[in-house]
Every structure is written in C-alpha cells, then in structure tokens.
Amino acid sequence: MQTYLRQENIRPLFKKARFGLEKESQRVSLTGELAKTDHPAVLGNRSLHSTVQTDFSETQIELITPAVETAQEVLDYLGAIHEVALRSMNKDEMLWPLSMPPELPELEEDIVIAKLDRFEDVLYRRYLARSYGKRKQMVSGIHYNFEFSTKFIEALFAVQTEFTCIEKFKTEIYLKVARNYLRYRWLITYLYGASPVSEPRYFTEDQSPREPVRSLRNSPYGYTNHEEVFVSYQSIEKYIQDIEDLVEKGVLSEEKEFYSPVRLRGGKQVADLKEVGVQYVEIRNIDLDPFAPYGIALEGIEFFQVFLMYMLWLEDSGDDLDQLLKDGTRLNDQVSLEHPLSETSLKEEGKNLLEGMKEMLKVLDSKPSWVVLIDRALKMLEQPEETLSGKMQVLFDDGLTNKDLAVTQGQAYSNAAWEKPYQLAGFRDMELSTQILMFDALQRGIEVEVLDRHDQFLKLSYAGKIEYVKNGNMTSKDKYVVPLIMENKTVTKKILSQAGFRVPKGEEFSSLEEALASYSQFESQGIVIKPKSTNYGIGISIFKDGASFEAYQEALRIAFKEDSEVLVEEFISGTEYRFFVIDGQTEAIMLRVPANVKGDGVSTIQELVTEKNKDPLRGTHHRSPLEIIQLGEIERLMLKEQGYKVDDVLPKDAIVYLRENSNVSTGGDSLDVTNDFRNEYKEIAVAAVEALGAKISGIDLIIPDKEVNPYETKNSYGIIEANFNPAMHMHVFPYQGEGVRLTQNVLDLLFPESKVIN
Amino acid sequence: MQTYLRQENIRPLFKKARFGLEKESQRVSLTGELAKTDHPAVLGNRSLHSTVQTDFSETQIELITPAVETAQEVLDYLGAIHEVALRSMNKDEMLWPLSMPPELPELEEDIVIAKLDRFEDVLYRRYLARSYGKRKQMVSGIHYNFEFSTKFIEALFAVQTEFTCIEKFKTEIYLKVARNYLRYRWLITYLYGASPVSEPRYFTEDQSPREPVRSLRNSPYGYTNHEEVFVSYQSIEKYIQDIEDLVEKGVLSEEKEFYSPVRLRGGKQVADLKEVGVQYVEIRNIDLDPFAPYGIALEGIEFFQVFLMYMLWLEDSGDDLDQLLKDGTRLNDQVSLEHPLSETSLKEEGKNLLEGMKEMLKVLDSKPSWVVLIDRALKMLEQPEETLSGKMQVLFDDGLTNKDLAVTQGQAYSNAAWEKPYQLAGFRDMELSTQILMFDALQRGIEVEVLDRHDQFLKLSYAGKIEYVKNGNMTSKDKYVVPLIMENKTVTKKILSQAGFRVPKGEEFSSLEEALASYSQFESQGIVIKPKSTNYGIGISIFKDGASFEAYQEALRIAFKEDSEVLVEEFISGTEYRFFVIDGQTEAIMLRVPANVKGDGVSTIQELVTEKNKDPLRGTHHRSPLEIIQLGEIERLMLKEQGYKVDDVLPKDAIVYLRENSNVSTGGDSLDVTNDFRNEYKEIAVAAVEALGAKISGIDLIIPDKEVNPYETKNSYGIIEANFNPAMHMHVFPYQGEGVRLTQNVLDLLFPESKVIN
Q1: For A661, what's the count of Cα atoms within 13 Å in the CB-facing half-sphere?
Q2: How many CA atoms lie within 13 A of A208 on its CB side?
Q3: Separation CA A142–CA A82 (nearest Å)
Q4: Is A169 helix (H, G, I), strand (E, B) or coil?
C-alpha cells in the first residue's frame, strides 16, 4: 500500500478528504442543572430537521453538520449549528460541555426519553433504557465521519493490480483503516479522552472508579455494548454476518445498537454495504473537549484525519485480524482507566505511532501545521498534563470541581453565541443578510450548502426540494428579466409610469450637447441630474430649487463621467422611505436618518458619539447592522457649518447631524416605521412591485406627508427606485423600532412547507 | 394663444409631440402589375396583427406604426415594418410606391376585396365598392397621427384662465388646429402632392383631367366623400352631431366613412369624443412620396409637425368657422388641379404662411434644421419643379412614364429590404439578435416597443399580454437565480457535477501562494488555468500536455490579473460545440472554426480572403453574422508559422488557418451542425440545462468523437460552460449549413398563442 501512496500523482490526493461531524450535548440551566423543558419548538418538526435533532433524551441535543471537504469547513458548520441551537433555546439554558452528563435525577423515570413523532423511535429508546439503563444513555460525544476523496480512491485503484472492482477495493481500504483504528485507538483515548470523572447519579450505586481516569466514556464504565458483542472486521461479509447474527439472536435489538468505536458506513442498512461498498467510516470514540467552544477543535479534526491516513499507510499488524481487534479493546480499556496525570503504559508504542505519522507526512510533503500537530502529540505523550483529561485534572487539583468547569465553559460559549445575534459563527465573513438567512434556514432544518462563499451563493434543500440563493434574496422566485428592468432606471420609470404610478418626470441624454440644449426645459424647477446606471449616489447632483445654466452644465459633466447616458429628472421633495415588498406584502418600511447625536445638556458631542457607538449593533466594515459614527473631517466640517465643535456640550434634546447623507454605512440610523404607515402606501408599494413583475424588491418612495391618503391627494408620493437585491439585515436589526425578520419571509417563499408554526 | 405659447416654460414643451403613421400600398409584381396573390400567410392572423393589415383590397397592405415621441423614431418603425412587409411577401412582389394605384383590372369584380375574418368588415368594404366604385378605393396614402405632448397641454392649461376642465381645453386646442389645417391644407397639397397622373383604368371612362395635376388623390377626382357631406368643426358637439346626422340619414354608412383630411381622434367612437375629449388629430391628405423608401421622408414628418404647431399658433382667420372650411376645400381643390410645374395661384398666401412659421420658430428658439425645412418650402414655392409632383413631372417630361418611375423606385426599395436580411431597417444600430427578434415579432403582429435602445430592452405585447426582453433572449421565462449560477463557473460546475454531468475537475484558488502550493496536483496532466468570472477567453492559459512549474506560475499570474479567484481545471480534449437549448429542446448546434481559406490551386491567399469576404453575411463591427477576415499582423504571423506568405498560391483544397481562436468576431466560420448529431448529445445538453434550471441557454460541450454513443462510452463529453444570454444571430445566419431561426423559438416561448401555423 505504501508503495502506491508514495507515488507522485497519489500523494496530493491522499491528503484530501470529506468530513462530517455529529455532536451530542445535554441541555442544562445556566447553573448546570439538567433542563426540564422540551426541545425548542422554534426548531420546528424534528423528523425533518437536518441539523438539530434529539438523541436519547429530550434534553440531549444532537448537532449534525453536512459532509464537506476541509476540516475548517466542517468546524464552521458545527459552529454555526451550535449557535443556532443555543439561540433557539431559552436564554436561561445552555449546553453542558462535557461528555459525562450533568447531575442526573434521583429517579431514573425522571429522565425524559426524546419526544419523537415516530413511535418506533420511541420504542427503540425504551428498549435501550431497559437494556442499558437510562443513565448510561445520557453520555454524549462526537461522531466523526471520514471519507477519503473520490479522486484519491480512483487514482489508487488505477495503480493497483489486485482488485478489478472499485467498490470492493474501496471496502478493503476502509476495512483496513477500521481494523488498525480499533487496534490503536487507545492513543486517541490517551490524547483526547476528556471524561475523567462523573457527576452524581451517573453510577446507580457506588460502582465508580475511586480515582479520576482518562476517559470514563471510553472505558468499560462508558457507553459500550454488552461483552458478548464481537463483530469481525476481517471482511465485509463477516462484518455483515456477525451483526446480522447478533440481531437475529437478540443480543442486539437493531443494527444501530452496535456501538463500535468505528462503524463502516454506506447505504441505508448494514446489508447494503455488500452491494454499494463501504463509503466512509464513522469514528465514535471522541469525547467532548470542554476547552473547545463546539466540543472539538480544529487541531483535533486534523489530528484524527492524519491518524486515519496513517491507519491506511500502516501495514496490517499481524495475521489474526480478529485478535488485533481484541488487543485493541484491551489496550484501550487499560489506557482509558489510567490516571489522567500518570504516564501511559503504552508510551513506547505511542511514540512509534507518532514518529511513523511524522515520517508519512514528510513523504507526503504535507503542510507544516500537520507536523506541528504530531509534535504536540509527542509532547503530550511525555507530559500527561497536556492531554485533555490531564488539563482537566490539573484544574481539579487546583480546587475547581468538574461542575464548576462545565458551568464556566458552558456559560462562556452561550454568551459568545448571543453576543452578536446578527452574525453566524463560522460564516462571519459573509454578508449579514446571508448570515441571518443561513441562521433561519438551519433553525428550520433546511440543509445549507455554501456553494461559493465569496459570492454569497447558497444551496438550500428541504424535503427533497432544492433552491439556490445568492446574496440573501436573489432566488428562483423572481424572473430573470425583472432585475434587468430595475437595473435600468429609464425602463423602470417607463413601466411604472405606463402602469399609472408617479415617477419623477425627466429625460435621458446620451451627449452633453443634447442635454445642454434642453436646459430651458428644466430651467424653472427642482431637478436631479444622475448617471443612468451607476448606483450608490455616485455622480448625482440635486438642485432642490432649480439650477443655473452653469450649475446644470457642471452637474452634467460630473454625471457623464460615470455613464454614457445621463438622466435629468424633476426633483420630488419629501422624505424617502424604503418599502420592502415580498410575495405581495409590504413587510417592512424603513426610514434612514443621517448620523446624528441628541444632546443631554451635560455631555459633549464627542462623548455623545462615544456613548452612541457603544450600541452592540454598531460595528465596522458591514459586519454589524449599523456602523460606528466617525468624527472625521467630513463630520467636523458638517458640525462647523452648524456652529459646533466636537467638545461643545449639546443642549438637552437638541439633535445635531454629522452627515448630509443618510446611508447606514456612514453611521446613519435605521428606523423601522412599518407600523407607522397608512395601509394605502403599503398597497401602492405592493402594486408598483407587481407592475415590475417582482416577488422581492426594496422600493424607495418619496413621501411629502405620510398622514395624507395617497388615493385622495395628488402628488402624495413619487417612486424613485426599485432595488432587486435589497438589504435585509437593517430591517431585521434596526436602530430603532421593532425588527422585521425578512429572512423568514424569504424562506417562507422558497419553502412554504418548512414554515414553523408555534 | 400666442401669448401663452411664447412663455418661457411653455416653449420647450410646445416642440414635443407624439407621432404615429399609417401607410397604405398596393402589392404588385416586380414589373408593376397588381398582385394576384393573397395577403402573405406568414403574417398570421390579420385580425390580431398590430402592424401589417389589409385595407380595402386584398392587395392593399396597410402598415401601422406605434405612437412614439420623435419624428426619427416613427420613421424607424415605419422602415422596420416596411421591411417586415416586403420580406414577408413573395420575393417576386414589391410595394407600388405611388398613391395612385397601378393599372387596374378591366373588370371591377377582379379587384379582390380584402379577405377579412370579420363578416362586418367585408360587408363594409362591399358597401364602399357599391357607393364609390372599387377603383377609387384602390388609392393609397399616408395617415399622420399627431398629438401635442401631455406636459405641453398641462402647462398651457395651467397658464390660461378661460377653461376649468383640461379635457375641454384640449378639445378646443385640436379643434382650432383642425380648422386652420383644413383652411390652409392647400399648401401641403402644393408641396407634398405626388399624384399627378393615373395608370390606366383608374378612371372608368375618360373623365380624367387632360393635363397632369399636383395631386389627383387630393383633388375632387380622388378619394373624397360625396358632395353633400359637410361636417362642422366649430365645436365638438357640432362635429359629433353632424357626423351622427349624416349616418342617421344614410349619407354615410358608418362614422369611419367620413373622409375628412383631418379627423378628430379620441375614444373608440366619435360619440366618445365628448366625454374623453379630443386626444389627437389624424391628418389624411398626405400622398405617398415616391422618392422616400417608406413613402414619407423625415423632413416631411417634421414639416407637418411645424405646420400643425403653426395651426395652433395662428389666430382663427375669421368668425364664420364653417365658411373657413369651405374656403379651405375650395382652395385645395384649386391647387390640387394646377399643373405640377406651374406657379401656384396662392403663392402669396403660401409665402405669408411660411414666413409666419419661420417667425414662430425663431420665437421658439427651435433647432436649425426646422428653419431649413421652411426655407426649402419657400424655395419650392418659387420653383414648382422642387415640389414632389414637380419632380415627378420633370422626369415625365424627360420621357419616363409614371409606371417606369414606380417600378424603378419600387424595385430599389425592395432590393434594399432584401439586401441584409439579418438586419432591420430603423434599428440597425441594435444587436443583430435583437433586430432579428424584432423582425419576427413584427411579422407575427406582436407589438414592439423599444424601451431602451442602447440597452436592447424591448417591450412586446400581444393579445393583452406583455413580455419584456433584453438582449434578445433574457426574459421572464428564466429564473433570476439561473444566470447568477451560470455567471459563477464554480457554482455551475458544482451543480452540474452533483447532477451527474461530466465537468472539468479542478480547484478554485484565491491566492497565488495557495495555487502554487498545489502544483503537484496538476503536474502530470493537461490543464486550463482561468480567471473565475471573466469571459471572452481573457486571461485563460491552456496546457494540453501539462505545464512546467514556471509556465504554471506565469499562467496563474496572468489569470490573477483578471480576477481575485482563479480556477485550475483539467483539460478535456476534443472539439467544442455550442448547443442552443430552449424550452427543453436542443434547437441548434454550432461548430466554430478559426478564420481560414481553402485553396483552389490558382489564387493567392490574399485573393482567397478577398473572395471569401464577398459573402454578404460578412461585415464589420458585429453588424453582420460573420466578420470580414483580416490580413493583419496576427494573421500574417500565423501564416508565417505555417510557412506561407499572403501572396502564395494555395494548393487546391488545402485549408490554411489565419487565426488560432475560433471566434466569429475575428473572422471565424460558424457551421451549423444541428442535424449531424446523435440525439443522445442533444438529450445531454437538454438535461444539463434543466439541471441548471434554465429555459434558454447556450451550453458548450467538448466532444472528442461525436459518433460514439455517450451513454455507452466513458468521458465522451465534458461541459465547459453554460451561457445565459447566448448569441442567436450566428445560428440564424450561419456560414455553412441550414440556419435555425431561434428568435422564433423565443417568441413561441413568450407568446405561444402568436405562433403562425402555415
């Protein structure tokens, strides 16, 4: 095998893989008591939920990531799902960060089996409760699904000569990995075991070990099958046969009761493995790492990968493949029960394994960080206090209790999840609207795949249906031609005007001469001069009371710099509001106000700005719904014009504006005014968006007086723009007023069947 | 009135208007005989046709433009519709360019009444035949619909004090214009009259004038009501009452039999005018101009506009408004029967009118070209040979017959229409695909409005349904997210790959370092390095047999210059074909071949290129389906590499390529191979487009051997790109092979009900 793996074309492919994680945790109060509440209703139907499930008990949340191609990505998803779970729970609950459960109820019947819809699922849990006792089922851990890359398997298959069928070959690969893993898994227990002690009432009587150990969970005290369960990994036929026999004899109730540290996966049932071949392995002996916010750290994910690669690299150690497994279990039992701070009895074998891994990485020309991981493991072998259980034990020796540790860490992770509720862990570099949409999708159990991170491109799947979303609300529900219409101001205005809506009257010019020749037409009225297609206010000049010929000429010059076509339009006076219309409803209305502070009669403007900037909604670089108010040159100039300096004390209730423009990106405030509006305006916005043929649009209306009835008053509004990818985050988290969670409306539109009814 | 019109804010608005034209012509053979064929079937259902109709007889085509806002635009539409009509007719037919019909059949019954669907339409024509004789009904002309701009009427209404209702005010405006027009219309007859003589059998017996006249059509010999028809234009009430009385008395069979040189228009029926007010005037006394390709020239359209403006500018001449009309008719009759080359008896009044118009234009600060028009008219007043009938008479005096003139002009206009069948008159600056689509739409009777000419934005309407189209095939039938998918090569590949299609395997990199570190992965295979989002082959490097590290590095540098993300992909060898898929069908397949010539053993390469460039499909600047082959630096270098010079004689059947790239834009050939392909490949293209969710796409497949069955052979194709706005013109007019009129498929998709079944 090594001969093949060392080949030049195989080496780069060998380093590629797919990962998926499952993580169980107990829901507890902020002080560490097992939760008495039900699984969060906001998560909707558990049977269809792709990411947040319940395991054995109603309090035991299971988080499931999709399968992805890098360690970082799988951690990103776990982080995101973790935040979804935490923010879906009551704010006074958190996740217990240890594998061993929190203090359990005195009466076993007070441990509530997960309230699942499917009766067979409930029955199975009842059987487990009878067979193992409910307490043992309360243990949690990480399941680590690992698959070599398809290209790697194909390339390897191409160079070997023994197998003629790629499925068989693949199965053989994973059988070997599984066997070696079972043989050497004690090293994982040594390094990453993290369940030295238990809280009260995990053990029914006092059967617990007197001393702390490396991993209760991976020891015979943990969550293992009864002793008579032995399954061979010699061949896939034997593996299947053994499991089927155990079920047949009633030793196991179902296939899934086979709790091996490595399961062979592929197809729906164990029997399918023979036909489809093993497609990946599920590693099940990983304790929750209390020092990692999501129960597992990036270095852990990567170490397990290198370890599994090495399990393929290694030759089979011995001919009796069943004996190998038995040895593995014996050695693992032994190491798991060692004291966390003691030197392990298998140190020499450990050293050999790690040096072998290092050697392999050298041959593979791997990235340096992987070598660092091995060096760190070597150090842990020398210094048990560096292992996870060792670190915990050092804290215990310092007087911290196991529960203290759990509560401290659990609270820290819970606080982190709530700190910036407009962001989503793992995806904080994406647009806020997309982060919020992803949160809502994950919460509803919609599968989320990020097809292109830089491009904000998502694939959402639910109940067999697929929808693609770009930038939060560019979807299949809108028609191709609609954004093209909105992109073109002239076309937008023509269509709206033909449909009877009021838009600023104006002309389009494609040459300066032509525009200048038409001056007389605009001479005596307020006008706006703007480039036809550019956005964000660039190149726009506004003359509220009309322009002199010189000013007209200059403004045209500026506009023609931005575009070869320029619009001259009547200026409509009034306040500009953004109407967010989706699926025939005006769901939100927003007023944007330039950066400003309001005096209290005591503080200086500088102090007022500092105070206002403390709002957790304010941040920088569009990673928050509002931006920090600056006191730069423009703001100081603006103050000066109003007769102020930054260290002037502002009179009580006096409002001073620091910017002319109302953009949120320059510190402006976003005011939700959805409920302050007459229905007529909402209807007009809906009708205008309908005239443009759009399902989703942010349409900007200038309204001189929103109290008048627009049906009864002339010129009561003017539509100045329709946006085909309107920002949502500012509506969800406004500066003032109630937020409107438009991302939920997008999901309702895409997957009406996923709507959570509480 | 003039006081108002002179006001600063009114003046610029006064110059704006809306125009619509209707033009009748007789279909004739290329030698000028009245056509014996039916109205072209390819035009579909006449009852729904918006632009090409039949008037009185089956041979009398009527072209109808939409109402638009400039003289140039209305002429553009007339030109386009003209070409549609000509190219819809048999190639051996043309349009008779004169108002007076071609030689008519001996027997009146051989003049075939238009074969219309609605029986009442046929009945009405039968009545006209009985009442006026069929021969008179064969006369053709231009109807000129004119409306002042709404803004103008509104502004004028705002400054006057007499009227309180804008509809009444508007009606008064048009009544005045109509009265003055009727009074002074003799000047139009003088300047633009163009029917001096008739062909045989227009006059049943020899009642015709002995001498040529200025306008038979506008004379008592023309197409006028019986003498007892007089309708007053004093007030709208009187106008309606008079017409209703005439119908009541049976003098007119229907309202529309009232053949006034000016009709007041608004609403569906004359009676509606009272309620809705007059909305525009229809000027009906314009002869076909045989010297203008479409029967009317731009200067004519503009002169009539200025003339109509002046009819408003003028004060009413006298109190007896009915007498005014009678005077007008008398003067017009008089001028119409003058000899074309004689001085008109009304020269002085004409001079006064034209000087008055000039004065008005000066006050209005109008564009210089309008003043030129008036000066030209003044000259025509002095020199009758400069009038239309005068020009004709000069030719007759030189020995040309009326028929000769008609045939020469008619043939020239027909040839012009057929010269570049891939273009559309009036819109030759637009994209070819859009021009062809517009042609097909107009041919089917779909209304076409160009919303934005530079942006190729069309509004199509048919039977009450509206569709918007940009760039020929960006429509409402595709979903918003689909082009976004196709724009992103990574996302496209992921979706196609997940759906089981073969796409080039590869990686995406966002830094040079990262890409360089992955070199080993691509070391030993053919690769393509390309920027992620840019198009048109910019920044792409292809290494068919793999790249050295240095070459790899250099190619990455080039690609990163174009985009912040770069793809490295496997190179799939084979021939690239463009599959055009629309509505679940592969309608066309194209092979593009680099610019090349094929030797004949006699000609030099230079001569072969010159010969090949004679193909009428070749042109420059994308205004033709193929581009002229250049012999510039690149081509000469390419020749040199193959051991040729431009003046070498190429051996018979030897093919030499002048370019490496196969782009049509650099002289490449487009070969239609739709029928050379196995169905399986067409199915694969359809399925891939379906996987992307698109209705219309040009999908590029690399196929090593198109003869093999792709379902039975591995790696028989690779999909390298899907395009969301694929060019259509190259499929419609290929260099070789049968063209596929994809624009028809687009229309079938948008308006299935408009499909013409022949």
Answers
A1: 12
A2: 21
A3: 13
A4: helix
Task: Respond yes or no on whether ipTM tops 0.90.
Answer: no
CA distance B89 to B28: 10
Beta carbons of B8 and A523 less than 8 Å apart: yes
pLDDT digits (tens, 9 = 90+) for A530-575: 888 766 668 888 898 889 999 999 999 999 998 888 999 999 989 9
Give pLDDT tens digits for A68-85.
Answer: 999 999 999 999 999 999
- Contact A73/B at CB under 8 A: no
Q: Is A477 on the interface with B (CB under 8 A)?
A: yes
Q: Which of B281, B273, B274 is nearest to B173 (CA)?
A: B281
How far apart, in whole angstroms, are the C-alpha atoms of residue A22 and residue A24? 7
pLDDT digits 0-9 by tens, B480-522: 999 999 999 899 999 999 999 999 988 889 889 889 988 888 8
Indicate if the alpha-carbon torsion angle A148, A150, A156, A161 is positive or negative. positive
A471-522: pLDDT as tens digits: 999 999 999 999 999 999 899 999 999 999 999 988 889 899 889 988 888 8
Per-residue pLDDT reduced to its tens digit, A620-663: 888 899 999 999 999 999 999 999 999 999 999 999 999 988 88
Partners of B655 in the beta sheet? B598
* Phi, psi (deg, nearest 5) at residue B30: -65, -15
Cα B136 from Cα B129, distance rounded (Å): 9
Q: Please give the distance of CA A248 from its chain centroid, rounded to a whole number.
A: 42
| Residue A5 CA, distance from chain mean position | 35
Please give the Cα distance from A439 to A422 (Å, whole number): 9
User: Distance (Å, rounded) from C-alpha B603 to C-alpha B581?
Assistant: 41
Residue B495 vs residue A136, higher pLDDT = B495
Q: For residue A379, how many other CB atoms are within 10 A of its CB?
A: 11
Q: What is the dihedral of CA A375, A377, A378, A382, to 10 degrees?
A: 140
Tokens of B691: 């996987």
On whether the CB atoms of residues B58 and B115 are closer than 8 A, the answer is yes
Strands (E), B157-289: 262-265, 280-286
**Alpha carbon of A733: minimum distance to chain B alpha carbons (Å):** 26
Q: Is B519 helix (H, G, I), strand (E, B) or coil?
A: helix
Query: How far apart (Å, rounded) are the C-alpha atoms in residues B313 and B360?
Result: 8
- Residue A534's pLDDT is 65
**In order of start, what are the domains of chain A with their CATH numbers?**
2-419 (3.30.590.20), 505-570 (3.30.1490.20), 575-748 (3.30.470.20)
In the numeric block, the tokens 């793996």 are attached to A5
Contact check, Cβ <8 Å, A479/B480:
yes
Q: Of A468, A491, A524, which has the smallest distance from its Cβ to B451's Cβ? A: A491
The DSSP result for A216-257, as a single string, is: STTSTTSS---TT-----S-HHHHHHHHHHHHHHTSSSSGGG
Q: In whole angstroms, what separates CA A485 from the centre of its chain? A: 34
What CA–CA distance (Å, rounded) separates B686 from B676? 17
Minimal-distance CA residue of chain A relative to B15: A521
Which of B478, B480, B725 best tests the A interface by mutation, with the highest count of A CBs <10 A?
B480
Beta bridge partners of B698: B580, B723
Tokens linked to B481 = 């997210």
Amino acid at B545: D
Residue in chain B closest to A510 (alpha carbons) equals: B454
Q: How far is A693 from chain B (nearest CA, A)?
A: 9
Q: Whole-angstrom distance between the N-terminal and C-terminal Cα of chain A?
A: 56
